[in-house]
Task: inverse folding
């Protein structure tokens, strides 16, 4: 009798489990069905590129100020100007080299930071710290770049980005994203630790860090327009970006280089690269 009750309970539990699964599946199926019946959809192309969701998160408590960077310790805005000029010189030297894509993005972002800081002195709560941060962050990029140029070595994320660009192994969008990934995912944690995230009064520096995302939103659309005009029109084929013509011709920014390599070189990479052994 006990065995019969036990088997009956097990069967009932199994039945309840299947009913739960069917209920979940019905719920998942109902959403697309409802959309098909005429409910409005969200136009993702109208959303900002950088949602800045991190601004909603509280800062982590570090306990101490870890500032150890010697770059622009006085925090003058001229430090940001110096970084921008250095990037412009690099961009001019690179001409149609695929590494120019990230250099262009970095130059335009740095220039916009300086412009916003001058036009809106209260945009950041601590301009000297922001300028110190900007100079420290850029030093990490230039250190990796100079090492690659002199010794063909760099931190792995940068080595992959530089090697891919040197070999014309990606589109302009690919070069941009690889450079951004290396600078943000590899360099940024070190830069933030080096400049410190705690003000002298113990408050967090995170709000000023989060405001940089607003700068990125100001830069991204004109940046893609410039890349499309000077290097690769196909950069506008990024999901969610405003519609642009994909057949526009490159401008005269580097006409000899464009004619030499051809615009299809940006969109048709060579054979897969052989991985370089460490």
Result:
């Amino acid at each position: 009798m006990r065995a019969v009750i036990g088997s009956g309970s097990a069967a009932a539990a199994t039945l309840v489990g299947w009913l739960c699964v069917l209920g979940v599946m019905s719920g998942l199926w109902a959403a697309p069905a409802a959309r098909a019946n005429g409910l409005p959809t969200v136009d993702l192309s109208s959303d900002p590129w950088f949602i800045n969701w991190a601004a909603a998160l509280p800062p982590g408590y570090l306990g101490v100020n870890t500032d150890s960077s010697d770059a622009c310790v006085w925090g003058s805005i001229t430090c940001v100007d110096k970084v921008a000029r250095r990037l412009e010189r690099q961009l001019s030297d690179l001409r149609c080299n695929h590494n120019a894509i990230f250099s262009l993005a970095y130059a335009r972002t740095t220039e916009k930071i300086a412009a916003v800081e001058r036009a809106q002195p209260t945009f950041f709560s601590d301009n000297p710290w922001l300028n110190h941060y900007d100079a420290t962050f850029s030093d990490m990029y230039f250190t990796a770049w100079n090492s690659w140029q002199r010794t063909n070595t760099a931190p792995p994320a940068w080595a992959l980005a530089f090697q891919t660009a040197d070999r014309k192994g990606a589109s302009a969008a690919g070069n941009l994203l690889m450079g951004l990934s290396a600078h943000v995912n590899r360099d940024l944690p070190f830069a933030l630790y080096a400049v410190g995230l705690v003000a002298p009064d113990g408050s967090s520096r995170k709000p000023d860090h989060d405001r940089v995302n607003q700068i990125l939103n100001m830069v991204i659309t004109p940046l893609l327009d410039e890349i499309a005009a000077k290097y690769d029109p196909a950069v506008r084929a990024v999901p969610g970006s405003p519609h642009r013509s994909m057949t526009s011709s490159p401008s005269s920014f580097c006409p000899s280089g464009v004619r030499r390599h051809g615009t299809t070189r940006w969109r048709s990479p060579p054979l897969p690269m052989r991985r370089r052994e460490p």
Remarks:
- Residues 1-7, 18-45, 240-278 have pLDDT under 50 and may be disordered.
- Residues 109 and 216 are 7 Å apart (CA to CA).
